[in-house]
Amino acid sequence: MHRILLSSFFVLWAALSGAQEFRAGPLLGAHFSQVDGDFYSGYNKVGLTVGGFVSRPIADRWELQLDIAYVQKGSREAPNPDKGKYDDYKMSLNYIQFPLVARYRYKQFSGEAGVSVAALLSSEEEQDGSPISDNPNATPVPFKDVEWATVLGLNYHINERLRINLRWLYSINRIRIPYDGDIPAYDPKNHWLSRKPGQYSNNLVVSAYYSINRLL
After folding, report:
1. pLDDT tens profile 52-104
2. Nearest to 68 by CA among 53, 49, 87, 88
3. What is the pLDDT of residue 199?
């Protein structure tokens, strides 16, 4: 599945970059994430997003863009005894992600919406500094290999080459189904009533995009 997914999006990325009119360049940003469906809240897991993008105009003021990025996300709860918080929990998920968005520009601003698909590269989960997999009382379920997500974003164009992007991504499918055990990584009541119980990725991303190629 990983190979088919990666191959398909690399072909699409190559097709866009081979178009007669295109923009392309690097992207770099920070990923602030949480997981809906655990006991913790807040965009406390901070990670890196780094990669490249290619885009091309499809109509007046409209542009289609595809990114290829390595992203770090998950969930984080740090102990804070002053506030009565003693849990030390960390979920680290590393993906290669392919957001595809349509963008509409008005003056120095542009809005975008689309869908993203990501392939899981690695996962790690810790409680009090120790891997949960080492805990004999925990029965964790593996994370899903593929994550689909909705994408909403806003851009501020500093100039024709550089722009700042703010995105919100929320997973469409569960990144993991419920499991039992002594580790409070799953809260059976903390999920959207209209959705299946489980864990869903919830992310805010702030990135800088720089166009090496100008529109031809």
Report:
1. 998 888 888 999 999 999 999 999 988 877 766 777 889 999 999 999 999 99
2. 53
3. 86
Radius of gyration of the chain from its Cα atoms, rounded to whole angstroms: 19
Structure token digits, residue 190? 């903390």
Structure tokens at 77: 């709860």
For residue 2, give Cα distances in angstroms to 16, 40, 134, 147: 21, 30, 27, 11
pLDDT for the residue numbered 182: 46
Could you tell me which residue, 143 or 5, shows the higher pLDDT? 143
pTM value is 0.82
Whether 146 and 174 have beta carbons less than 8 Å apart is answered as no
136 vs 72, more confident: 72
Token pair in block for residue 169: 């991504």
